[in-house]
Amino acid sequence: MSVELELAPKTKRAAGECCSEPLVYPDVSAQQAERMATIAKALGDPIRLQLVDVLRKHAGKVCVCELVPLFDLSQPTVSHHLKVLREAGIVASERQGLWAYYYVVPGALDPLGAWLPGCCEPESCNCSSNG
To answer: Which end of the chain has the lower number of beta carbons within 10 A, N or C?
Structure first.
């Protein structure tokens, strides 16, 4: 069985004209992407990721004085990392006397957590972890 192919002559596109329509569109709005990027950027530092991990495991608020011994960092450096997390809306704090007590804001990681499972669906995944 033979198949006949008809070749169309090449045609020039106008300058700036796309070659085709996009195949996919983002499911994430610009506002959602901005929020998720803020969270991801704040968690992009290993110390900040570990701080959030420690705070998530505590049932209540944790004094910064309890966090400092966990890391080979000075108290001002730990406080700086906590400030970055606070500005990203991931953690919040309450002052009691001289000390600040930190906790993970409920739901703060939900936007990123809700998106991550869907980013690598088995049927469309081409990453190395999907055998």
So the answer is: N
